[in-house]
UniProtKB/TrEMBL annotation:
<keyword id="KW-0597">Phosphoprotein</keyword>
<dbReference type="InterPro" id="IPR038318">
    <property type="entry name" value="KdpD_sf"/>
</dbReference>
<dbReference type="InterPro" id="IPR005467">
    <property type="entry name" value="His_kinase_dom"/>
</dbReference>
<dbReference type="InterPro" id="IPR052023">
    <property type="entry name" value="Histidine_kinase_KdpD"/>
</dbReference>
<keyword id="KW-0812">Transmembrane</keyword>
<dbReference type="InterPro" id="IPR003661">
    <property type="entry name" value="HisK_dim/P_dom"/>
</dbReference>
<keyword id="KW-0067">ATP-binding</keyword>
<dbReference type="Pfam" id="PF02518">
    <property type="entry name" value="HATPase_c"/>
</dbReference>
<protein>
    <recommendedName>
        <fullName>histidine kinase</fullName>
        <ecNumber>2.7.13.3</ecNumber>
    </recommendedName>
</protein>
<dbReference type="InterPro" id="IPR036890">
    <property type="entry name" value="HATPase_C_sf"/>
</dbReference>
<keyword id="KW-0547">Nucleotide-binding</keyword>
<feature type="transmembrane region" description="Helical">
    <location>
        <begin position="93"/>
        <end position="111"/>
    </location>
</feature>
<feature type="transmembrane region" description="Helical">
    <location>
        <begin position="18"/>
        <end position="38"/>
    </location>
</feature>
<keyword id="KW-0902">Two-component regulatory system</keyword>
<keyword id="KW-0472">Membrane</keyword>
<dbReference type="InterPro" id="IPR004358">
    <property type="entry name" value="Sig_transdc_His_kin-like_C"/>
</dbReference>
<keyword id="KW-1133">Transmembrane helix</keyword>
Amino acid sequence: MISKAIHNQKHNIINQSVIALIMVILVSVSCYFFSAFIGYKVVAFILLMTVSILAMLFEIVPVLLAATLSALIWNFFFIQPIYTFHISNSEDMLMFLMYFLVAFVNTVLTVKIKKMEKKARDKEEKEKTIKLYNTLLNSLSHELRTPISTIIGSADMLLEYDAKLTSENRKSLLSEIEIAGLKLNDQVENLLNMSRLESGILQLKLDWCDVNEQIRLVIQNHFLSNPRILFEEEENFPICKLDIGILEQILINLIRNALLYTADNCTVTISIQVKEEVLLLSVADNGKGIPSEHLPEIFDKFYRVPNTITGGTGLGLSIVKGFVEAQNGTIAVKNTIPNGLKFDIFVPVEITYVNQLKNE
């Protein structure tokens, strides 16, 4: 691995050196044709500018080579007597030495400035990463501890007081364990999904899907058929070819987000449409919505709208956006009238109808 990196670095330096030398030669040739009009002092300035530009783009070795070549070309083709490296005039000799010095100093300083800027960017990126890491840890310490504590506490009650518990008590404790387990599973899924998105290893697994059926299963399996969630099936809806797992994760995160940040008397409405082989999935609530100035930021990792309740890791909507874009889709969010928030997801899909699918 290290030898490969060294090989790539050497190859990159060679390529930069070739480009830098060609640039100096091209500029020198251009100046040569106009040397009678601009004079050799102006040529020196133009060559120095060329070396300065190269110093901002390339590594130090290619730029030093370019600076050396430009000085030799300026001496050989522009300083009297031309076509020789001999300099008869002491003033020209001083200028040539100054050119050499300025070209090299300029190259070294520019490269050092680039390294300092890179170091500053790396430090800023590191501080940002540490801040995000701490935010995630603080969030997880609460979000994971709560369902784990619920599961352990309920399990202890079942074990220690089994004989004294009524069937209703057992049913209630088991329900709490199930709810906490689902919540814990969702948090772990979010972490794994974010890892997949950031590592770039996400691979789509396209399959034919009954979208109506899939939405029903998500509501039933992950939200225990919560009465706050409303979904009206679309009759004669086409079968769509998409990644069923990704669709499920998008729905889970959007529904969970809506349930978490709206009051208990609010509802979450899911609707679907398809037009010109684009699936439109909408998830809307009738809560308070959020201030419009915060809408562009709600898909950022760990972002929380100010003055909202605590809860969640701040990854859900970021994961939704990542999954949608992985399918070449787009997501939009807006406040609805008279109140509430609505997410619209547009994903290009291949469609067919049941009769057609049977014949394929």
